[in-house]
Amino acid sequence: MARVVVDVMLKPEILDPQGQAVQRALPRLGFEGVTEVRQGKRFELEVAEPLDEVALARVREMAETFLANTVIEDFTVRVEEPVQRETAGGQGAGAPA
Amino acid sequence: MSGGLGRIGVVTFPGSLDDRDARRAIRAAGGEAVALWHRDRELHGVDAVVLPGGFSYGDYLRCGAIARFSPIMESVLTGARTGMPVLGICNGFQVLCESHLLPGALTRNDHLHFVCRDQRLRIENAETSWTTDYTAGQEITVPVKNIDGGYVADERTLDALEAEGRVVARYLDWNPNGSRRDIAGITNQTGNVVGLMPHAEHAVDALTGPTTDGLGVFTSALRTLVGSS
Protein backbone atom coordinates (compact mmCIF):
# COMPACT_ATOMS: atom_id res chain seq x y z
CA MET A 1 0.00 0.00 0.00
CA ALA A 2 1.07 3.52 -0.73
CA ARG A 3 -0.24 6.61 0.97
CA VAL A 4 -1.44 9.53 -1.11
CA VAL A 5 -2.35 12.76 0.63
CA VAL A 6 -4.88 15.16 -0.86
CA ASP A 7 -5.03 18.59 0.75
CA VAL A 8 -8.07 20.72 -0.01
CA MET A 9 -8.16 24.44 0.77
CA LEU A 10 -10.72 27.13 0.09
CA LYS A 11 -9.53 29.39 -2.72
CA PRO A 12 -7.86 32.57 -1.42
CA GLU A 13 -10.76 34.75 -2.56
CA ILE A 14 -13.39 32.67 -0.73
CA LEU A 15 -14.25 33.88 2.75
CA ASP A 16 -13.36 31.36 5.46
CA PRO A 17 -15.45 32.30 8.51
CA GLN A 18 -14.38 29.16 10.37
CA GLY A 19 -10.71 30.02 9.96
CA GLN A 20 -11.48 33.57 11.10
CA ALA A 21 -13.23 32.26 14.22
CA VAL A 22 -10.17 30.15 15.04
CA GLN A 23 -7.88 33.14 14.50
CA ARG A 24 -9.99 35.30 16.79
CA ALA A 25 -9.97 32.66 19.53
CA LEU A 26 -6.18 32.38 19.61
CA PRO A 27 -5.32 35.56 21.56
CA ARG A 28 -7.91 34.65 24.16
CA LEU A 29 -6.05 31.39 24.69
CA GLY A 30 -2.73 33.15 25.00
CA PHE A 31 -1.46 32.48 21.46
CA GLU A 32 -0.38 35.86 20.13
CA GLY A 33 0.92 36.88 16.74
CA VAL A 34 -1.24 34.80 14.39
CA THR A 35 -2.67 37.22 11.88
CA GLU A 36 -4.63 34.82 9.71
CA VAL A 37 -5.95 31.25 9.81
CA ARG A 38 -7.30 29.36 6.82
CA GLN A 39 -8.93 26.01 7.52
CA GLY A 40 -8.86 23.12 5.06
CA LYS A 41 -9.27 19.36 4.72
CA ARG A 42 -6.66 16.61 4.46
CA PHE A 43 -7.48 13.21 2.96
CA GLU A 44 -5.10 10.28 3.48
CA LEU A 45 -5.70 7.61 0.86
CA GLU A 46 -4.21 4.14 1.14
CA VAL A 47 -3.82 3.12 -2.49
CA ALA A 48 -3.01 -0.35 -3.83
CA GLU A 49 0.42 -0.71 -5.47
CA PRO A 50 1.75 -0.07 -7.98
CA LEU A 51 1.33 3.65 -7.58
CA ASP A 52 2.18 4.57 -11.15
CA GLU A 53 1.19 7.59 -13.23
CA VAL A 54 -2.12 5.97 -14.15
CA ALA A 55 -3.04 5.45 -10.50
CA LEU A 56 -2.00 8.99 -9.62
CA ALA A 57 -4.05 10.36 -12.49
CA ARG A 58 -7.07 8.55 -11.07
CA VAL A 59 -6.44 10.12 -7.66
CA ARG A 60 -6.23 13.56 -9.26
CA GLU A 61 -9.51 12.88 -11.08
CA MET A 62 -11.06 11.78 -7.78
CA ALA A 63 -9.85 14.96 -6.09
CA GLU A 64 -11.12 17.17 -8.87
CA THR A 65 -14.57 15.59 -9.21
CA PHE A 66 -15.34 14.63 -5.63
CA LEU A 67 -12.92 15.45 -2.81
CA ALA A 68 -12.73 19.11 -3.79
CA ASN A 69 -15.33 21.43 -5.26
CA THR A 70 -13.12 23.34 -7.66
CA VAL A 71 -15.63 26.18 -7.82
CA ILE A 72 -14.50 27.23 -4.33
CA GLU A 73 -11.55 24.98 -3.45
CA ASP A 74 -8.01 24.21 -4.63
CA PHE A 75 -6.35 20.86 -4.02
CA THR A 76 -2.89 19.31 -4.05
CA VAL A 77 -2.03 15.63 -4.45
CA ARG A 78 1.23 14.19 -3.13
CA VAL A 79 2.62 10.75 -2.41
CA GLU A 80 3.83 10.27 1.13
CA GLU A 81 7.16 8.45 1.15
CA PRO A 82 7.25 5.23 3.20
CA VAL A 83 10.26 6.46 5.23
CA GLN A 84 8.30 9.52 6.29
CA ARG A 85 5.37 7.36 7.24
CA GLU A 86 7.43 5.34 9.72
CA THR A 87 8.84 8.52 11.25
CA ALA A 88 5.35 9.96 11.54
CA GLY A 89 4.19 6.77 13.28
CA GLY A 90 7.01 7.06 15.80
CA GLN A 91 6.14 10.64 16.59
CA GLY A 92 2.55 9.66 17.11
CA ALA A 93 3.55 7.59 20.15
CA GLY A 94 4.22 10.72 22.11
CA ALA A 95 6.33 13.82 21.92
CA PRO A 96 9.53 13.84 23.96
CA ALA A 97 8.96 15.23 27.42
CA MET B 1 -47.38 11.11 -19.30
CA SER B 2 -49.38 13.38 -17.03
CA GLY B 3 -53.08 12.84 -16.76
CA GLY B 4 -54.87 15.87 -15.37
CA LEU B 5 -52.79 16.55 -12.29
CA GLY B 6 -49.17 17.46 -12.73
CA ARG B 7 -47.01 14.78 -11.14
CA ILE B 8 -44.09 16.23 -9.19
CA GLY B 9 -41.54 13.89 -7.64
CA VAL B 10 -39.72 14.62 -4.39
CA VAL B 11 -36.44 12.79 -3.85
CA THR B 12 -35.68 11.44 -0.41
CA PHE B 13 -31.96 11.08 0.34
CA PRO B 14 -30.68 9.65 3.62
CA GLY B 15 -30.83 12.73 5.83
CA SER B 16 -33.50 14.62 3.88
CA LEU B 17 -35.77 16.50 6.28
CA ASP B 18 -38.24 18.47 4.23
CA ASP B 19 -39.36 15.85 1.73
CA ARG B 20 -42.73 15.40 3.46
CA ASP B 21 -43.37 19.14 3.59
CA ALA B 22 -42.44 19.43 -0.07
CA ARG B 23 -44.92 16.70 -0.97
CA ARG B 24 -47.55 18.40 1.15
CA ALA B 25 -46.90 21.72 -0.60
CA ILE B 26 -47.31 20.05 -4.00
CA ARG B 27 -50.65 18.60 -2.93
CA ALA B 28 -51.72 21.97 -1.49
CA ALA B 29 -50.94 23.51 -4.88
CA GLY B 30 -53.20 20.99 -6.56
CA GLY B 31 -50.58 18.59 -7.87
CA GLU B 32 -49.87 14.93 -7.37
CA ALA B 33 -46.81 14.38 -5.17
CA VAL B 34 -44.69 11.32 -5.91
CA ALA B 35 -42.11 10.06 -3.42
CA LEU B 36 -38.82 9.18 -5.13
CA TRP B 37 -35.99 7.23 -3.49
CA HIS B 38 -32.34 8.15 -3.95
CA ARG B 39 -31.22 4.62 -4.85
CA ASP B 40 -33.86 4.23 -7.52
CA ARG B 41 -32.83 5.14 -11.08
CA GLU B 42 -36.44 5.61 -12.16
CA LEU B 43 -38.33 8.88 -12.05
CA HIS B 44 -41.60 6.93 -12.36
CA GLY B 45 -43.01 9.21 -15.01
CA VAL B 46 -43.01 12.42 -13.00
CA ASP B 47 -43.15 15.72 -14.89
CA ALA B 48 -40.95 17.67 -12.48
CA VAL B 49 -38.64 16.99 -9.53
CA VAL B 50 -38.01 18.68 -6.18
CA LEU B 51 -34.77 18.06 -4.29
CA PRO B 52 -35.76 18.87 -0.72
CA GLY B 53 -34.01 20.46 2.22
CA GLY B 54 -32.18 18.61 4.93
CA PHE B 55 -28.74 17.15 5.53
CA SER B 56 -28.28 14.50 2.86
CA TYR B 57 -25.54 12.07 3.86
CA GLY B 58 -25.02 14.08 7.01
CA ASP B 59 -23.48 16.89 4.95
CA TYR B 60 -20.30 14.78 4.96
CA LEU B 61 -17.49 16.05 2.74
CA ARG B 62 -19.54 19.08 1.59
CA CYS B 63 -23.28 19.75 1.59
CA GLY B 64 -24.81 17.91 -1.35
CA ALA B 65 -21.48 16.47 -2.53
CA ILE B 66 -22.39 12.83 -1.94
CA ALA B 67 -26.09 13.12 -2.82
CA ARG B 68 -24.99 14.40 -6.21
CA PHE B 69 -23.74 10.90 -7.05
CA SER B 70 -26.94 9.10 -5.99
CA PRO B 71 -28.32 6.75 -8.66
CA ILE B 72 -31.46 8.85 -9.09
CA MET B 73 -29.43 11.96 -9.83
CA GLU B 74 -28.42 10.55 -13.23
CA SER B 75 -32.08 10.62 -14.27
CA VAL B 76 -32.62 14.03 -12.66
CA LEU B 77 -29.61 15.47 -14.52
CA THR B 78 -30.81 14.00 -17.82
CA GLY B 79 -34.29 15.41 -17.23
CA ALA B 80 -32.99 18.81 -16.20
CA ARG B 81 -30.86 19.07 -19.34
CA THR B 82 -33.88 18.31 -21.52
CA GLY B 83 -36.13 20.91 -19.95
CA MET B 84 -37.81 19.10 -17.05
CA PRO B 85 -38.55 21.54 -14.21
CA VAL B 86 -36.22 20.84 -11.26
CA LEU B 87 -36.30 22.76 -7.99
CA GLY B 88 -33.67 22.42 -5.28
CA ILE B 89 -34.57 23.90 -1.93
CA CYS B 90 -31.79 24.54 0.62
CA ASN B 91 -29.88 21.22 0.63
CA GLY B 92 -31.41 20.60 -2.79
CA PHE B 93 -29.90 23.90 -4.00
CA GLN B 94 -26.54 22.66 -2.71
CA VAL B 95 -27.00 19.40 -4.64
CA LEU B 96 -27.77 21.35 -7.84
CA CYS B 97 -24.60 23.42 -7.44
CA GLU B 98 -22.50 20.34 -6.71
CA SER B 99 -24.03 18.76 -9.84
CA HIS B 100 -22.98 21.85 -11.86
CA LEU B 101 -26.57 22.31 -13.02
CA LEU B 102 -26.28 25.72 -11.36
CA PRO B 103 -23.11 27.81 -11.05
CA GLY B 104 -21.42 28.75 -7.79
CA ALA B 105 -21.53 27.05 -4.42
CA LEU B 106 -23.06 27.40 -0.98
CA THR B 107 -20.72 27.88 1.94
CA ARG B 108 -20.83 28.28 5.71
CA ASN B 109 -22.88 31.28 6.88
CA ASP B 110 -20.54 34.23 7.39
CA HIS B 111 -21.66 34.58 11.04
CA LEU B 112 -21.23 30.81 11.63
CA HIS B 113 -24.64 30.42 13.27
CA PHE B 114 -27.55 28.30 12.15
CA VAL B 115 -30.26 30.74 11.14
CA CYS B 116 -33.98 30.01 11.33
CA ARG B 117 -36.35 32.91 10.77
CA ASP B 118 -39.08 34.28 8.56
CA GLN B 119 -37.36 36.08 5.72
CA ARG B 120 -38.60 38.73 3.34
CA LEU B 121 -37.55 38.15 -0.26
CA ARG B 122 -37.97 39.90 -3.55
CA ILE B 123 -38.82 37.77 -6.57
CA GLU B 124 -36.49 39.07 -9.28
CA ASN B 125 -37.33 36.68 -12.10
CA ALA B 126 -40.96 35.65 -12.54
CA GLU B 127 -40.36 33.73 -15.73
CA THR B 128 -38.74 30.51 -14.50
CA SER B 129 -40.68 27.24 -14.39
CA TRP B 130 -41.08 27.77 -10.63
CA THR B 131 -41.94 31.49 -10.41
CA THR B 132 -44.49 32.34 -13.11
CA ASP B 133 -47.26 32.80 -10.54
CA TYR B 134 -45.35 35.72 -9.03
CA THR B 135 -44.66 39.10 -10.55
CA ALA B 136 -41.16 40.49 -10.89
CA GLY B 137 -40.47 42.73 -7.91
CA GLN B 138 -43.07 41.01 -5.71
CA GLU B 139 -42.08 40.74 -2.07
CA ILE B 140 -42.83 37.54 -0.18
CA THR B 141 -42.05 36.15 3.27
CA VAL B 142 -41.02 32.52 3.76
CA PRO B 143 -38.84 30.77 6.36
CA VAL B 144 -35.10 30.49 5.87
CA LYS B 145 -33.14 27.89 7.88
CA ASN B 146 -29.57 26.93 7.15
CA ILE B 147 -25.97 27.01 8.29
CA ASP B 148 -24.41 26.56 4.84
CA GLY B 149 -26.48 29.06 2.91
CA GLY B 150 -23.91 31.62 1.81
CA TYR B 151 -24.06 31.78 -1.98
CA VAL B 152 -20.65 32.37 -3.56
CA ALA B 153 -19.40 32.55 -7.14
CA ASP B 154 -16.64 34.49 -8.82
CA GLU B 155 -17.38 38.07 -9.88
CA ARG B 156 -17.64 37.16 -13.54
CA THR B 157 -20.29 34.51 -12.80
CA LEU B 158 -22.19 36.90 -10.52
CA ASP B 159 -22.13 39.59 -13.22
CA ALA B 160 -23.38 37.07 -15.79
CA LEU B 161 -26.20 35.93 -13.48
CA GLU B 162 -27.29 39.53 -13.02
CA ALA B 163 -26.98 40.41 -16.71
CA GLU B 164 -28.96 37.37 -17.83
CA GLY B 165 -31.67 37.88 -15.20
CA ARG B 166 -30.85 34.58 -13.56
CA VAL B 167 -31.12 35.83 -9.98
CA VAL B 168 -34.55 34.45 -9.04
CA ALA B 169 -34.88 35.86 -5.53
CA ARG B 170 -32.97 38.21 -3.26
CA TYR B 171 -32.93 38.68 0.51
CA LEU B 172 -34.49 41.88 1.82
CA ASP B 173 -33.89 43.65 5.17
CA TRP B 174 -31.11 41.34 6.32
CA ASN B 175 -28.81 38.98 4.49
CA PRO B 176 -29.08 35.85 6.67
CA ASN B 177 -25.94 34.06 5.53
CA GLY B 178 -23.52 36.37 3.76
CA SER B 179 -24.71 35.43 0.26
CA ARG B 180 -23.00 37.47 -2.42
CA ARG B 181 -25.28 40.22 -3.75
CA ASP B 182 -28.04 39.07 -1.36
CA ILE B 183 -28.80 36.13 -3.66
CA ALA B 184 -31.42 33.74 -2.29
CA GLY B 185 -32.08 31.81 -5.49
CA ILE B 186 -30.83 31.42 -9.05
CA THR B 187 -31.84 29.64 -12.23
CA ASN B 188 -30.11 28.01 -15.19
CA GLN B 189 -30.00 29.53 -18.66
CA THR B 190 -33.25 27.87 -19.73
CA GLY B 191 -35.16 28.71 -16.55
CA ASN B 192 -36.29 25.15 -15.79
CA VAL B 193 -33.77 24.52 -12.99
CA VAL B 194 -34.08 26.69 -9.89
CA GLY B 195 -32.14 26.63 -6.64
CA LEU B 196 -33.70 28.40 -3.68
CA MET B 197 -32.18 28.64 -0.22
CA PRO B 198 -35.35 29.75 1.65
CA HIS B 199 -38.08 27.19 2.25
CA ALA B 200 -41.11 27.96 0.11
CA GLU B 201 -42.58 24.58 1.12
CA HIS B 202 -42.88 25.74 4.74
CA ALA B 203 -45.09 28.68 3.77
CA VAL B 204 -48.12 27.07 2.16
CA ASP B 205 -50.53 26.91 5.11
CA ALA B 206 -51.50 29.73 7.49
CA LEU B 207 -51.66 27.24 10.37
CA THR B 208 -47.98 26.30 10.19
CA GLY B 209 -46.26 28.95 8.12
CA PRO B 210 -45.77 32.69 8.45
CA THR B 211 -47.65 33.18 5.16
CA THR B 212 -48.84 31.15 2.21
CA ASP B 213 -46.42 33.01 -0.05
CA GLY B 214 -44.50 29.84 -0.89
CA LEU B 215 -47.42 28.16 -2.58
CA GLY B 216 -46.77 30.11 -5.77
CA VAL B 217 -43.56 28.16 -6.38
CA PHE B 218 -45.52 24.94 -6.72
CA THR B 219 -48.53 26.35 -8.55
CA SER B 220 -46.08 27.93 -11.01
CA ALA B 221 -44.55 24.55 -11.81
CA LEU B 222 -47.97 22.95 -12.23
CA ARG B 223 -49.03 25.76 -14.56
CA THR B 224 -45.79 25.34 -16.52
CA LEU B 225 -46.53 21.62 -16.91
CA VAL B 226 -50.07 22.24 -18.12
CA GLY B 227 -48.75 24.80 -20.57
CA SER B 228 -46.20 22.41 -22.02
CA SER B 229 -48.35 19.28 -22.22
TrEMBL record, chain A:
Pathway: Purine metabolism; IMP biosynthesis via de novo pathway; 5-amino-1-(5-phospho-D-ribosyl)imidazole from N(2)-formyl-N(1)-(5-phospho-D-ribosyl)glycinamide: step 1/2
Pfam families according to UniProt: PurS
The family this protein is said to belong to: Belongs to the PurS family.
Function in brief: Part of the phosphoribosylformylglycinamidine synthase complex involved in the purines biosynthetic pathway. Catalyzes the ATP-dependent conversion of formylglycinamide ribonucleotide (FGAR) and glutamine to yield formylglycinamidine ribonucleotide (FGAM) and glutamate. The FGAM synthase complex is composed of three subunits. PurQ produces an ammonia molecule by converting glutamine to glutamate. PurL transfers the ammonia molecule to FGAR to form FGAM in an ATP-dependent manner.
Alphabetical list of NCBIfam families matching this protein: phosphoribosylformylglycinamidine synthase subunit PurS, PRK05974.1
Gene Ontology CC: one annotated term: cytoplasm
Database matches in PANTHER family: PHOSPHORIBOSYLFORMYLGLYCINAMIDINE SYNTHASE SUBUNIT PURS (PTHR34696:SF1)
Keywords: ATP-binding, Cytoplasm, Ligase, Nucleotide-binding, Purine biosynthesis
UniProt protein name: Phosphoribosylformylglycinamidine synthase subunit PurS
Gene Ontology biological-process entries: 'de novo' IMP biosynthetic process
Enzyme Commission number: 6.3.5.3
Entry's Gene Ontology molecular function annotations: ATP binding; phosphoribosylformylglycinamidine synthase activity
Assembly and interaction partners: Part of the FGAM synthase complex composed of 1 PurL, 1 PurQ and 2 PurS subunits.
Subcellular location: Cytoplasm
SUPFAM superfamilies found in the cross-reference section: PurS-like (SSF82697)
Source organism of the structure: Streptomyces oceani
Reactions catalysed according to its record: N(2)-formyl-N(1)-(5-phospho-beta-D-ribosyl)glycinamide + L-glutamine + ATP + H2O = 2-formamido-N(1)-(5-O-phospho-beta-D-ribosyl)acetamidine + L-glutamate + ADP + phosphate + H(+)
Principal cellular location given in the protein's record: cytoplasm
From TrEMBL, chain B:
Protein's job: Part of the phosphoribosylformylglycinamidine synthase complex involved in the purines biosynthetic pathway. Catalyzes the ATP-dependent conversion of formylglycinamide ribonucleotide (FGAR) and glutamine to yield formylglycinamidine ribonucleotide (FGAM) and glutamate. The FGAM synthase complex is composed of three subunits. PurQ produces an ammonia molecule by converting glutamine to glutamate. PurL transfers the ammonia molecule to FGAR to form FGAM in an ATP-dependent manner.
GO cellular component: cytoplasm
Keywords: ATP-binding, Cytoplasm, Glutamine amidotransferase, Hydrolase, Ligase, Nucleotide-binding, Purine biosynthesis
Subunit structure comment from the entry: Part of the FGAM synthase complex composed of 1 PurL, 1 PurQ and 2 PurS subunits.
The name this protein goes by in its record: Phosphoribosylformylglycinamidine synthase subunit PurQ
NCBIfam families: FGAM_synth_I, PRK03619.1
The encoding gene: purQ
GO biological process terms held by the UniProt record: 'de novo' IMP biosynthetic process
The protein's annotated pathway: Purine metabolism; IMP biosynthesis via de novo pathway; 5-amino-1-(5-phospho-D-ribosyl)imidazole from N(2)-formyl-N(1)-(5-phospho-D-ribosyl)glycinamide: step 1/2
Catalytic activity, EC: 6.3.5.3, 3.5.1.2
SMART domains per the UniProt record, alphabetical: GATase_5
